[in-house]
Amino acid sequence: MDFQKFYFCKNKIQNLGFRRKIELNHSTKIRITHNNWYAELFSKTKRSIKRKREKKRENRSSAALSLQKQWALLNVTSVASSGSDDSNKNILFSDSALYSLYSPIYEVYAQLIEAKNVDENDSAENQTLTNNGCSNYINANLPENYIVLVSRGVCTFERKVQIAVANKALAVIIYNNDQNVITMFIKNTSIPSIMVSEYVGNLLKQLATHSTVFVSIKPGPVEFIQSGSLPSRSSVYFVAFAFLSVVLVTFVWLTVYYIQKFRYINTKKRLDEIFR
């Protein structure tokens, strides 16, 4: 009987030890899982901070790029049918243009072609011929090397450049709808893209329609915008703080004024009632 109790107690102790071992292993797994979770959270936070820093650095570089204007020199020439020697070139006119913000900057010389396309929203029965360059060109017999002329509007600048690249143009000239030129924001571009005024664009359009003209695009001077002309962050904060202070003081003064006025009116009424 004593031996039975002994073996019973021994088995019970062994079972308790085995269960305790299982519990310890389970808690260890939980602790390891928690440690892995904390490590993963830390790595995610670190990656997020790194991405934010890279985005901030990219925004700073974009802001630095926006502080300069890259001009282009535009030379329009006519070429005799005998060849393209310098002696046969007749310079028709020269003008300046403005590169887009992320445009590649290098010299390009090719024949000028006005884009001919139809709007994608037009029906098959009622198609309008235009030169906005927002859809695939339908020009007949496009040369191997050419610079395309498109008008501003209908779609984005980036869309116009993408269509030009798809049609194997060497460069894009976009003419504005007024006499000003702006720096176009075209981030994804592999060919030079420049903007000219409406007057120059219409002149190029007439020349390309009635004759064969060649265009040379060369990098011109860089115009830097003085960073001192832009307000600094501290000055903006100072002006905002001063404005809020003036508003607060005015509000307090008006509040005190109307309180005093209200008290004066009530006191006057009481005195009138007393001495009536």
From TrEMBL:
The chain crosses the membrane at residues 236-259. One of its GO terms (molecular function) is ligase activity. It holds the Pfam family PA. Residues 130-204 form the PA domain. The keyword Nucleotidyltransferase does not apply. It comes from Brachionus plicatilis (Marine rotifer). Keywords: Ligase, Membrane, Transmembrane, Transmembrane helix. InterPro entries: PA_dom_sf (IPR046450), PA_domain (IPR003137). This is E3 ubiquitin-ligase RNF130-like. The lineage of its organism: Eukaryota, Metazoa, Spiralia, Gnathifera, Rotifera. The keyword Iron-sulfur does not apply.
